[in-house]
Design goal:
The complex is a heterodimer of chains A (about 425) and B (about 260).
Chain A lengths: L1 E6 L23 H4 L2 H20 L4 E4 L13 H14 L6 E4 L9 H15 L3 E4 L5 H7 L7 H17 L4 E4 L4 E5 L13 E5 L3 H10 L3 E3 L4 H18 L9 E9 L3 H19 L4 H4 L7 H14 L14 H6 L3 E4 L1 H15 L3 E5 L7 H14 L1 H6 L20 H8 L1
Parallel strand pairs in A: 1-2, 1-11, 2-3, 3-4, 4-7, 7-8, 8-9, 9-10, 9-11
Antiparallel strand pairs in A: 5-6
Chain B lengths: L4 E7 L4 E9 L3 E5 L9 H6 L4 E5 L18 H14 L5 E6 L1 H12 L4 E7 L19 H8 L6 H6 L6 H19 L10 H4 L7 E6 L9 H8 L3 E6 L6 H4 L1 H13 L1
Parallel strand pairs in B: 3-4, 3-5, 5-6, 6-7, 7-8
Antiparallel strand pairs in B: 1-2, 2-4
Classes of the chains: A alpha/beta (about 425), B alpha/beta (about 260).
Amino acid sequence: MKVTMFHFMPYRDLPEEFPGSLPSAWVDAPWWEYGDANKVTDYYNWSIDELMLAAKLGFDAVGTNEHHQNPYGFMCNPNLFGAILARMTREQGLDQVAILQLGATISSSPPIRLAEEYAVIDCLSGGRLIAGLPTGLGTDVSISNGITPMEHRERWREGIELMLKAWTAKEFFAWNGKYTQLARVNLWPRPVQEPHPPVLIPGAASSSTWDFCHDRDYPYAYLSYFGGKSAHNVMDRFWERAAAKGKDANPYRASFLQIVGVAETDRKAEELYSKHIEYFYHKLLHMPLGYISPPGNTDYRSMLNVFISGKNLLQISDFTTDLKPLKAKDMIEKEFVVIGSPATVRDKLEAMAKRINVGHLMVVLQFGSMSNELTRKNIELFARDVLPHLQKLWEDQNWENHWWPKKLRNRPARQREMATA
Amino acid sequence: MPTARIKTIPVRHCNFEAKVKTAGNGPPLLYLHAAGGPIWDPFVEGLTERYTVYAPHHPGTGETAREAIYAVESLWDLVLIYDEILDALNLNSVPVIGTSFGGMMACELAAHRPERVSKMVVLDPIGLWREDAPVAPYMLVPPEKLVAMLYKHLDSPPVQKALEMPSDPKALALATADLVWALGATGKFVWPIPDKGLKKRLHRVKAPTLIVWGEDDALVSAIYANEFAQRIANSRVEIIKDCGHVPQVERLEILNPMVAGFLNA
């Protein structure tokens, strides 16, 4: 299994009473009341340091993504950070680590610019980019960036087509799209990876995104904060859909994101991480459904699918469940978060990966209000006692990972590192 | 009660298969529905007693194909679709009533083809913008707050009737999906701010126009009534007291004679 350390870069010091009567932590939390740019200086630098620590300690990739106008995560352009990580990993001889951009939101930026930025990161890193092509949240695309919700998915599809063509065309071309018109395209630079970097499509349980992936043989990253158990139904349907379209059950077609906290013992872990779990779920995920998917954002069929089979499809549905009554203990018990001793975390993550058949795991080791110090501890323990075990998963089966940078495909980053040491 | 039927009209523009609900006796009248989708309420039903009412369904809503909205790319497309629907119906000069989003569309049509609209009634239309009285971002408001924003008296029987949803779970899922989709399909032409240039075009409207507003409209303030009136030469304003955004539900007894008097004059 390929394991990525993923970072949202949250605001770590919201006051106890937050969100109070605010309708949402997204868009509606006034910067001038809660934000401190001097603290943010630390957050950005710590976040980069934390990802670099993971890179040094043997993770297969480091990952960032894009969000706007909120304390949950505000890397407004993940390519700023991807570029830094590409440069720093190269400088420090960490050429076995992939740069996973999960990524720049296609629907709200000029796709031709994103194609360039991704190509820059692939060049800087010497061919280590994984190009995430997210549809993006409604709040980011439509509220923070003003894109009409009904156009969100069309812009995304067209943007991806344009990016792929701009990366690969060996001739000048004109792009006469619905949302982008360019008279003469000739992208400089192009990515190092041929024909283009591996892509990854993140999604939040929308059936139309699964079909999009299967029809093109793209891998899918299911982003949920409700853990492996709540993902059973979604991932089962994803794999059913794959089978129906004649695709194999190669686990590398799928990625899953998981919040993880490791300590010496289960009890210690609960003590250390509980308040950060509650900070994350109660403060940072405070968002009404209308923000995540304003009318027109989810296509009619997916929406009807959710309304008709709602409870069956998503037992715990993102942002529609009232999280406030749940304490950290409940969320650990329900496995929204995987918290515990190295052995506990290992067992749970392995069982989860096998049950939902994922070959890529993205772990979030800094969440909510976790300090830099605690985060480093978490990364170190995970890297030492959990990561090597997980990286062996699926190795005994003959699946080929077509969706990872070619030069990094063969063995876990750790083994390569040890071999060169 | 006259039986309503759905007329299917293939529109060349955007290859849109239009659906127009039609009922009533008498001279023709065009009715343009609000952002929540086509509703055949007592106000429209009442109009069918004196008029043959033509009520086109906005692309993607009502009887139209849900995906039809994708081909309608701009407000310009939408106006031309209405123009072609009127061609097909042989309506060369017709009174138009529009509510909220439909009121904006009535104004757009009357500005584009001034001769085609003989008289116009707009009920709490959107389409203009004032910094000091921003139109509420109704697509972002949770359902229970949206309902409270639309009506002054939530408990009143006509409002309760208007808010009824099916009890069968599958029918409820369909109705909910249709409602959300209608907001998205109409919202395509007003997101994120319903100010798409109508202020530059309203002066072209020739139709005598009645501008009706609920005094306590919390979605689009009654302050906008005069914004419309200032730009439409032959217009007058009627403010309905103790009424929210939807006078045709909350104050039908006042609205009916008002509209009848204006259209008969």
